[in-house]
Amino acid sequence: MQNMLMGGPVPTAEPQAAPPQAQMPNPEQIAAARSHMSVVMDGLLSLTAKPEGALTKRDLYNAAGEMIAQGAFSTPEAKQQLVAQLAGIPDDEASIRKAIGGQLLAMGETAAKLDEHFPMEPPNG
User: Fold this and answer.
1) CB–CB of 100/44 below 8 Å?
2) Taking burial as the number of CB atoms within 10 A of a residue's CB, which of 18, 68, 77, 90 is the most buried?
């Protein structure tokens, strides 16, 4: 029998296991994702409304705190990732606005995919 050191594994006739199927999110998970995205998008849009010359990195941290208070970034891992992203943004306003714009574009694309795969149901009544 051949092994990894001598040129690779010997092919076998055993059937390959099927990859695990992705589990569909339940309606509560979809609603939570929409709520999270709404909170984050609102927070980012509020930052873009600041007049030119008035946006600082402190504003980013304050907005992040507001987003967390409203339920976004609810896990310790998400908060840690957020802090790391914020720390990586340069202090100048142009870079801050560019980073916010990139996040808004990415979130818009994600929201469109979410809506495509899980259309919102009209409210009852």
Assistant:
1) yes
2) 68
pTM, two decimal places: 0.73
- Say which residue the tokens 């589990």 belong to: 23
Q: Which residue has the tokens 């984050």?
A: 40
List the structure tokens of 72.
């976004």
Q: Count the neighbouring beta carbons within 10 Å of the beta carbon of residue 105.
A: 10
Q: Are 34 and 114 in contact (CB under 8 A)?
A: yes
Please list, in sequence order, all residues whose beta carbon lies within 8 angstroms of the beta carbon of residue 67, skipping any fewer than 6 positions away.
Answer: 39, 40, 43, 73
Backbone φ, ψ for residue 112 (5° rounding):
-65, -40
10 CB-contact burial (10 Å; exposed 0-12 / middle 13-18 / buried 19+): exposed
The DSSP annotation for 53-102 comes to T---HHHHHHHHHHHHHTTSS-SHHHHHHHHHHHHTS-SSHHHHHHHHHH
Residues 33-61 have pLDDT tens digits of: 899 999 999 999 999 999 999 999 999 99
